[in-house]
Amino acid sequence: MSDPLYYLALAAVAAVVVALVIGIGGFGKGGAFNRRNANKMMRLRILFQFIAVVLLLSYVYLRSQGG
Question: Which residues does the UniProt record annotate as the domain HIG1 (predicted)?
Answer without folding.
Answer: 1-67
